[in-house]
């Protein structure tokens, strides 16, 4: 298992940008690739099986909407990342809620569109493997994947808990 310090030593500038930036992943990807980033929602709703791995970090008292998706560009064959997101509905403004449930716009873009002031609290960066996620990212199933998990906060309340999975080889 690679430790955080070892990981930092092998990361490309792109890898450092996407893993450690506290800005919008969507904006960072668009800036780096020079292309519009879109979202493809795979599943969403309030059933826990959608994002089982986030369950341990979400209070049962939260009114939570879950989304499984990936970010991509029309110009690239492979998705940039796979994501599991918990949306804390009680902490989200009404019109933004509707757009989130519609599922046509990446979360980072919606934060910009609705001018929501946010901060990010990175909870975890680790290396993992998953046959399911590898299939979505179009990489070999034995290839390592980097998980970055963080809260997006607004007005000192969590509005999202996001787990982003990126191909390891893409960021070194």
Description:
With 172 residues, the protein is α+β, with helices and mostly antiparallel strands. The protein has one domain: Chorismate lyase (3-Layer(aba) Sandwich), CATH 3.40.1410.10. It has seven helices and six strands. The chain has a six-stranded antiparallel beta sheet. Strand 2 and strand 3 form a beta hairpin. The two termini are 16 Å apart.
Structure summary:
This protein has 172 residues and is an alpha+beta fold.
Could you list some keywords that capture this structure?
globular, 6 strands, alpha+beta, 172 residues
* Helix content range: 25-40%
CATH class category label: Alpha Beta
Strand order in the largest sheet: 1-2-3-6-5-4
Q: Given the helix and strand composition, which structural class is it?
A: alpha+beta
Instruction: Domain count, please report it.
Output: 1
The CATH superfamily is known as Chorismate lyase-like
Query: What distance separates the N and C termini?
Result: 16 Å
Organism: Mesobacillus foraminis
Pfam families: Rv2949c-like
Keywords: Lyase
Protein name: Chorismate lyase
Ordered list of secondary-structure elements with their pairings:
Layout lengths: L3 H7 L2 H8 L4 H9 L4 E8 L18 E9 L8 E8 L5 H9 L4 H7 L5 E10 L2 H7 L7 E10 L2 E11 H4 L1
